[in-house]
Amino acid sequence: MHELVKKWQNVAPSQNAEKILRERYYLKNREGEYLENSWNELSRRVARVIAAAELLNNPRLQQMTPAERLDHIKSWEEAFYELISSRIFIPNSPTLFNAGMGVDFELLYKPLENMKLEDYEKIVQQRNHLHMLSACFVVPVDDSIDGIFTAVKEYAMITKVGGGIGSNFSALRPNGSFVAGTHGKASGPISFMHVFNSAVSVVEQGYRRRGALMGILNIDHPDIVDFIQAKRGNDGERVLRFFNISVGIPMQREEILKLYEQDGQIELHHPKWVGKKQVRVREIFQLMAQNAWETGDPGMVFLGEMNKYYALYPVRQIISTNPCGEIGLGPYEACNLGSIDVAKLYDGGKFAWDALEKIVRVAVRFLDNVIDVNVFPIDKIEWAVKESRRLGLGIMGFADLLYQMEIPYDSEEARRFARNLMAFISLHAHEASSDLGEEKGNFPLFSQSRYAKEENFVPFSMDVSDYDDEIKQHFKTRAKKHKRNVAVLAIAPTGSISNIADTSSGLEPNFLLAYVRYVNKQSSGEREPLLYVNEVLRKKMPAEDLKRIESELIEKGSLKNLDVDEKWKRIFVVALDISPMDHLLMQEAFQCYVDNNISKTINMPNSASVDDVLDIYVEALKHKIRGLTVYRDGSLRTQVLTTARSA
Ligand code: UDP
Question: Per-residue pLDDT tens for 590-613?
């Protein structure tokens, strides 16, 4: 393995990371006693279980002798272990929580040299119903009481094992329309969303984090105006508390832009609705901006844009995203995620591209293996996942990497680097998926996919990067024959795993350079403050300068108004120092090389006006992005992150 991986294996998680791990991640037995006490032990468990998947998904194993089989699995266990224990690659929380559920504890931690083939076979056999490893799900909701309450039950089952769920509620007939069965009136999608919200609020207890939901209503549904206002009065606690809501744009975003610019109207419709109504697109956008200004909701999801680049469209269709938006999915699809900490790959004044290539390839195999050792809560989900084998490999630590490289986040140089970084990851991840297709078999729907059928199909829009020719070449040649996964990439929020990695989250700028984060103590439910000062700043800024400004920095979170050299101010920008447009452009830079989507928040200062918010909603239609989430500072009473001052 690469030296850098070794180097990071010797760096222990910070005290803050260790606290989070002990509170929520380290496995305990039924008596509540810790079975693991270190990140290394957790890494061993996860690496071992995911390596055991080779028994389930590798036809070549049949041709090997038992000794060769054992060696094969052990060598993958070691490769996975190196990546995870170094915290250079971390899979999504459900994989960390649940890998090994049901398995004899002794098998999960015994020394690698003592592992036998039967031990791996037992791991595979003993997995129980809690062995659920994916973060993202989409459940369809049909227009009938039976359909709706089937979905409520499915929400409960998925939440129980730790998955986040999204649904598009547009199939439900609008409020006030006729119900033949009862000769009554339908109450409409929004009232039913409250039922889902309540179901999840009850099920959440006893699990290691709160449930997370995404509710979508398409822009042409008759209840769209009420939907946009559904989280009004949101205090962060009561109103549809578990839902992020988004307006779905099923058509191409350019169509909506044209209607907006020409002050056109959109016809609202539903097959079960006899009414006729048109709404001005400008009115819808004004209302979205007003509500987003107040509450942060609704966002927008460009379903048409997602399907435009979806390799199985129109055989399959993306109908919704998961709660944070990074994955668009069809009915009953799920996806597991994993993220590479790119900040750890900057070493000795250089970015280690060679290490990144190796890491990407191992990570793709890891995520593909997760599918096969996953125990899905519902059979329909297992079928949908296994016919296309979608993965979400992405990054975290981007902002901290830019700090080290001394490139301001809000600069063309940063965006150029972002495009190159993502294009490079995309190229090698897709190569790895084609290698796996050759080794283990293509995804079952491959022959119906656009990889096989469409001359010049590339599953993302591309822009300008150093790897464009190689990417085009890949999809023209290798991808025509071999592809293990319908999509491979996504950039997740990494809300928890970036803390475990002691790095900045996803592709986001740091929210603050110093802050207090509250974590719930599982044992007592108390909120405990953890203090952070950005590590790169600590290393780069002369100690005496930092000392001089430290208390002010903890209070303000940004260098912007502090008495320090301009150079530091320019490099160490935080979310609210960056203009909304620069946030959006960074989202676009990455999205151009990502086949799934990206989780990104466009942060705005508290002083932003409704018109400022509206400008970004309209601007979003002009860029190659797949959705929009805006957050105006202070618009919700409860924030996860807070400065020491406001705490
Ligand atoms: N998610 C969830 N509950 C949470 C946080 C996240 O169900 O409290 C799901 C959701 O689908 C989200 C995805 O996990 O989009 C990834 O979130 P993140 O990267 O923050 O998760 P991590 O792996 O860091 O815990």
Answer: 999 999 999 999 999 999 999 999
Q: Is position 420 annotated as part of the catalytic site?
A: no
Q: Which residues pair with 87 in a beta bridge?
A: none
Tens digits of residue pLDDT in 340-385: 999 999 999 999 999 999 999 999 999 999 999 999 999 999 999 9
Helix (H, G, I), strand (E, B) or coil at 541: coil
The CATH number that applies at residue 214 is 3.20.70.20
Which spans in 592-642 are helix H? 610-620
How far are the Cα atoms of 213, 226, 382 from residue 191, in angstroms, in the given order?
Answer: 15, 11, 30
Handedness of CA 51, 56, 59, 60 (dihedral sign): positive
Q: Which of 92, 234, 307, 322 is labelled catalytic?
A: 322
Rg (CA), the chain: 24
**Is residue 7 assigned to a domain?**
no
Residue 570: closest CA among 414, 351, 417, 418: 414
Asked if residue 310 is part of any domain, the answer here is yes
Q: Which residues have CB under 6 Å of ligand 1?
A: 92-93, 135-136, 163-164, 209-210, 212, 322-324, 326, 337, 492-497
What percent of the chain is helix, strand and coil (3-state, nearest 5)? 45, 15, 40
Q: Residue 472 pLDDT more than 90?
A: yes
Phi-psi region of 233 (alpha: psi -120 to 50; beta: other; left: phi over 0): left
Q: Six-digit token pair at 110?
A: 């015994």
Indicate whether 104 belongs to any domain.
no
Segments in 245-328 forming alpha helices (H): 253-261, 281-295, 303-308
Identify whether 209 is part of a domain: yes
Measured CA to CA, the distance from residue 486 to residue 430 in angstroms comes to 10
Helix (H) or strand (E) holding 548: helix 543-556
- Cα(641) to centroid(ligand 1), Å: 16
Q: Which domain holds residue 210?
A: 136-321
Closest among 23, 86, 87 to 501, alpha carbons compared: 87
| CA gap 626, 327 in Å, rounded | 10
Asked about 324 being catalytic, the answer comes back as: yes
The total domain count for the chain is 1
